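Translate sequence into structure tokens.
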Amino acid sequence: MKALFDFIDRTRRSTCPTCRYSGPGMKTVLPNSAWAKVDFRLVPDQDPHQVFAQLQGFLDTIGCGDFQVTLPAAEHPGPPHPGVSHPAANIHAPNESIFVDDYIRTIKGIGLLMAE
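Result follows.
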């Protein structure tokens, strides 16, 4: 279970959580629904459908199996962009990194593309 929590903490980003009364006027009531948008930054060789299945399994294990969860998009991660990454870059990891020279060279390259 700890491995699953660690996996989710490394790759998940929650955005737009909503749990409030949204009708007219102010109310001090508990809402009857809530929603959240969650997206995952996948690394090479991760399957988005497998990650989705792991999320559903995780929700089941914490007693939230009745949550309605949808998968609006499932894109496989692409390869690192040439010139921006290096073998120890740890793409999308908490310690993701690039070399400053590569960063500057990429900015110049994008500038050349935009000038065309």
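Note: Residues 98 and 104 are 10 Å apart (CA to CA).
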